[in-house]
């Protein structure tokens, strides 16, 4: 089976490596030709996944037509703000016999408030039934080092989920399946907002009590919004939910947590982003989540404070004071007490 991985950042490179190591025919598409050439020459992605040797069999190109020629599965791993543009470049070159397209991107489109699978369905309607989503606690570097990892694949059709499970599953990369596409996508995107919050708390010098509180109340927020948007609430207790939330709120490898850490220590967002080569999806997702919450009239207090810090110049310490001075309330909302 031939597979195209679109996006040669850290996650695209790690997933392409995993699939190529399984003996599959894999082409990695990089947006920039100089990056594609460097990967080919060095057999390593020096910018986004340094120090990881890539298999000789892995093909790399910056030409979309070459990447998509004869493929049966497409893996989309560009940042969320580039997904629509990438699909527009790709759509006329997608082979008729494509069996599945899977999004490994974690984000929500800021302007439209759409999830990644919705963007795919909108740009390439013919693929709607064959869309899957790969998510869960998985730092690219650790996957590239073959550290035992568990993720989940969501698809509306069981045959698509099954195909993708078989495709990605390895002895160190365990793939579960679910049909809750909405829940898996929202969980994967919204955990990045909480990772920024957890980083801010750490940057301000708070301790593990604070982190645990943010993870737990963050999960309550994610679940609250997810429920209103049609997700299965149980998804948020799974790999794409709690699993990824814990990973990103505690893991030193998280770019989103790093952004928060530096904000909490007093750096400006502009300076932090200017110094980063990689994407921290949570910065954009905070704006999308804030807008979604307003549109749905859902209360997301942590997200709201992260939004005010990122986009309204609120001092992190002031945001914490405001968060803590909110009215005391019951832990469970009334609709969950009966569940
Ligand atoms: N890195 C991880 O550990 C990891 C794990 C799981 C999921 N993800 C998700 O995967 C997605 C990609 O992240 P990453 O970590 O691979 O990114 P990265 O920061 O390592 O690299 C970004 C890549 O996207 C390219 N890019 C930037 N803007 C683009 C655009 N407008 N159109 C097309 N390409 C563009 C860059 O050239 C680069 O190749 C994100 O949604 C991220 O949340 C990442
Ligand atoms: O480094 P982050 O914060 O983008 O997180 C990467 C992955 O989403 C972890 O599952």
From TrEMBL:
Active site positions, chain numbering: 191 (proton acceptor)
Binding locations of NADPH: 10-11, 31-32, 48, 106, 140, 255, 279, 281
Enzymatic reactions: sn-glycerol 3-phosphate + NADP(+) = dihydroxyacetone phosphate + NADPH + H(+); sn-glycerol 3-phosphate + NAD(+) = dihydroxyacetone phosphate + NADH + H(+)
GO molecular function terms attached to this record: glycerol-3-phosphate dehydrogenase [NAD(P)+] activity; NAD binding
EC number: 1.1.1.94
SUPFAM superfamilies for the chain: 6-phosphogluconate dehydrogenase C-terminal domain-like (SSF48179), NAD(P)-binding Rossmann-fold domains (SSF51735)
A GO CC annotation given for this chain: cytosol
Pathway assignment: Membrane lipid metabolism; glycerophospholipid metabolism
Sequence intervals crossing the membrane: none
Coiled coil: none
Keyword line: Cytoplasm, Lipid biosynthesis, Lipid metabolism, NAD, NADP, Nucleotide-binding, Oxidoreductase, Phospholipid biosynthesis, Phospholipid metabolism
Nucleus is among the record's keywords: no
Top-tier EC class: oxidoreductase
Residues that, per the record, bind sn-glycerol 3-phosphate: 106, 136, 138, 191, 244, 254-256
Reported function: Catalyzes the reduction of the glycolytic intermediate dihydroxyacetone phosphate (DHAP) to sn-glycerol 3-phosphate (G3P), the key precursor for phospholipid synthesis.
Recorded family membership: Belongs to the NAD-dependent glycerol-3-phosphate dehydrogenase family.
Record-given protein name: Glycerol-3-phosphate dehydrogenase [NAD(P)+]
Species: Thermosulfuriphilus ammonigenes
């Amino acid at each position: 089976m031939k597979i195209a991985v679109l996006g040669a950042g850290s996650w695209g490179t790690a997933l392409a490596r995993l699939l190529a190591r399984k003996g599959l025919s894999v082409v990695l598409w990089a947006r920039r030709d100089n990056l594609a050439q460097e990967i080919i020459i060095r057999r390593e992605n020096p910018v986004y996944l340094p120090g990881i040797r890539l298999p000789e069999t892995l093909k790399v190109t910056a030409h979309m037509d070459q990447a998509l020629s004869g493929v049966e599965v497409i893996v989309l791993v560009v940042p969320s703000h580039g997904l629509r543009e990438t699909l527009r470049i790709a759509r006329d070159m997608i082979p008729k016999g494509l069996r599945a397209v899977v999004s490994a991107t974690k984000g929500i489109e800021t302007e439209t408030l759409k999830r990644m699978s919705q963007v795919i369905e909108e740009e390439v309607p013919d693929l709607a039934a064959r869309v899957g989503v790969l998510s869960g606690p998985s730092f690219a570097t650790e996957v590239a080092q073959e550290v035992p990892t568990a993720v989940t694949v969501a698809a509306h059709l069981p045959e698509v989920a099954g195909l993708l499970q078989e495709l990605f599953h390895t002895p160190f990369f365990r793939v579960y399946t679910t049909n809750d596409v909405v829940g898996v996508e929202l969980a994967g995107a919204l955990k990045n907002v909480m990772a920024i919050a957890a980083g801010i708390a750490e940057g301000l010098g708070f301790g593990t009590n604070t982190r645990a509180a943010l993870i737990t109340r963050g999960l309550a927020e994610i679940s609250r919004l997810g429920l209103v948007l049609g997700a299965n609430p149980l998804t948020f207790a799974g790999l794409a939910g709690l699993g990824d939330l814990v990973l990103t709120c505690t893991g030193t490898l998280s770019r989103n947590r790093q952004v928060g850490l530096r904000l909490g220590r007093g750096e400006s967002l502009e300076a932090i982003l200017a110094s980063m080569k990689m994407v921290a999806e949570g910065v954009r997702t905070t704006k999308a989540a804030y807008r979604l919450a307003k549109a749905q009239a859902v209360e997301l207090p942590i997200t709201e404070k992260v939004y005010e810090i990122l986009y309204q110049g609120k001092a992190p310490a002031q945001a914490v004071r405001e968060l803590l001075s909110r009215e005391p309330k019951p832990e469970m909302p009334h609709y969950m007490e009966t569940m």
